[in-house]
Amino acid sequence: IFAIIQESQAYIYSGILGVFLVGLFVRRAPPVAGVAGLVLGPLSFWLIKQLAPAISFVNRASISFALVIAAMLLPTWVKPLPRPFEFKRHGSVELVPSRAAKIFGAIVVLLTLALYVVFW
């Protein structure tokens, strides 16, 4: 079962990790690069699995990750954003919990205590 879970997650995480890293470090990457990465991740993993089934899933995920990075850097190289994307800082965040959050939090704590009492 563990192998099945790893295999199914490998379809997803190579593309997501590639999009995250390129989006974080390449400030001139256009939005189409992210879409290409998310589409190419599972597609490339599946294609490698079909063409070379003897390759382990970790190596397939690594190859897929490299393909995603390359596919995202290509549109960035051809037509980068005119200005680098800037992360905006928000000076303050209101950290006051809502009344509903307090009520549901108390319910979760009480249910957890009830489970401890029942299964003691």
Describe this structure in words.
By secondary structure, the protein is mainly α. The protein has helices at residues 2-25, 31-51, 57-78, 99-118. Helix 1 (2-25) packs antiparallel against helix 2, helix 1 (2-25) packs parallel to helix 3 and helix 2 runs antiparallel to helix 3. The two termini are 30 Å apart. The mean pLDDT is 90.
Tags for this model:
120 residues; 4 helices
What is the chain-wise order of helices and strands? HHHH
| Structural class by helix and strand composition | mainly alpha
- Average of the residue pLDDT scores: 90
The helix content, as a percent range, equals over 70%
Number of helices: 4
List how many beta strands DSSP finds. 0
Q: Report the sheet with the most strands, covering strand number, pairing sense and barrel closure.
A: none
Tell me, what's the shape? flat
Strand content: under 5%
What would you report as the Rg, rounded to the nearest angstrom? 22 Å
Low-confidence stretches: none
Terminal residue distance: 30 Å
What order do the helices and strands come in, and which of them pair?
Elements: H1 2-25, H2 31-51, H3 57-78, H4 99-118
Helix pairs in contact: 1-2, 1-3, 2-3
